[in-house]
Amino acid sequence: MQVLSLIVMLVVLTLLGFRLHTHLAVHERRVVAAWDRLDTLLTQRNGLLQQAYATAAHPHASLCTVHTKVQDQERSRRRGDLPELADGERAIRSAWDRYINEIIEESDSCQESLELTRRRVAALDQAISEALSRYNAAVSAFTALRRHWVFGPLARLTGYTAFEPVGPPPPPEP
C-alpha cells in the first residue's frame, strides 16, 4: 500500500512539475514571439530608411544622419545590446523628424515618393512602439514568473533565459 501511494505521489509531482514547466515555456515563447515581431518591424523600417538614402541623388545632410543612426542601431540590434538599441531608436526618430521638417521647409510640394515613404515610416514607427510595449510587457510577466517561489528554482534548474526589457539606457555612473 505504501509503495502504491509513493508511486501515485511521484506521478502527481511529475505531472505538477510538467505543468509548471509548460507554463514557463508558454511565457518564454511569448517573449520570443514579441521580440521576433519587434525585430521584423525594425528591419522593415530601417530597410525603408536605407532605401530612401540609397535612392536620393544628393542625400540631404539630415538624411545622411538618419543613415548613420540606422547603421548604428543595426549593429546594436545584431549584438543584442538593448540599451543601445533603445538609444538608437530615439536617435533615428529624432533625425528622421528633423529631416522631414527640413525638407518640408525647403519645398512646399513634397515629392510623392517622399510622402509615401514618410507615411510608411510613420506607420512602422507606430507599429514598433506597440511591439516594443508588447515585448516589455511579456518580459515583465516572464520576469515576475521567474521570481515566484515555485517557478524561480524550476526556471534556473531548467535553464530558462532571463530577458531584459528594451528601455532607456542606464544613467551614466558618477
Could you list some keywords that capture this structure?
0% strand; 82% helix; mainly alpha; 174 residues; 5 helices
Oligomeric state: single chain
The total count of helices amounts to 5
Question: Could you tell me the mean pLDDT?
Answer: 86
Share of helix among residues?
over 70%
End-to-end Cα distance, whole Å, is: 67 Å
Number of strands: 0
Provide a short characterization of the protein structure.
With 174 residues, this protein is mainly α. Helices cover 82% and strands 0% of the residues.
Molecular structure report:
- The chain has about 170 residues and is mainly α.
- It has one domain (about 25-160).
- It has helices spanning about 1-55, 60-80, 80-105, 110-145, 150-160.
- The radius of gyration is 23 Å and the shape is rod-shaped.
List the helices and strands and how they pair.
Elements: H1 2-55, H2 61-79, H3 82-106, H4 112-147, H5 151-158
